[in-house]
Design goal:
With 214 residues, the protein is mainly beta. The protein is built from two helices and eight strands, in the order H-E-H-E-E-E-E-E-E-E.
Amino acid sequence: MKRLLVALIGTFMLLNVPGAFAQIADIDGRWSFGGGFTGFSLTGIDAEKMERLGFENMIPGFYFGASLDYDFSAIEGLTVEPGVYITHYGKAFQFGLSDSHKSYHANYVHIPLNLKYTIPLYDEALGLAVYTGPRFNLGMGGNMFSPGKTYPGIRPYEAQWGFGMAVAVQDAILIRGGYDLGVTNCVKNNKDLSLEDEVVRRNAFFVGVSFLFK
């Protein structure tokens, strides 16, 4: 019975996949695909405690992914822009409570949801946009999420609020930059390090280039 149920569910999914892709293709919007550089630092009233434990102030990384600029409003230039990105951070550390060196890494699925407003310039050769909205980060691997006895760990799930600016060139290339402010506490509890519900948030910046497609 269980195998029959699984087979029926699988058949249903296969039959509906082409329809789902067709619906995505029919969406009246503009896709962007690209990536760039990013980095994050920890802020909050307990951020200095993390630095004393050996967690350095800025962790560099990179990102890549896609977003859809969807025209939902009667106001010209006002759009909503959801996206999905893969973000990687990494850096070598020497922890304050030991003499050991460690390479620290974290990978996220980064999901922004922007409210965006674009102003055309120079006969629409350029477009200047500002945007803001929530971001959700889902950790999907990396030792930064696993706290040890002598070093702190980062929670794999968090929320941020971001804002930024972008410039579209000839409706083909998008240059983007922005900053994401941490909303939820990001440090894992660790009894060995006396970390419990610390007020520390993860702020991130990014700058990158994307290609635009309709």
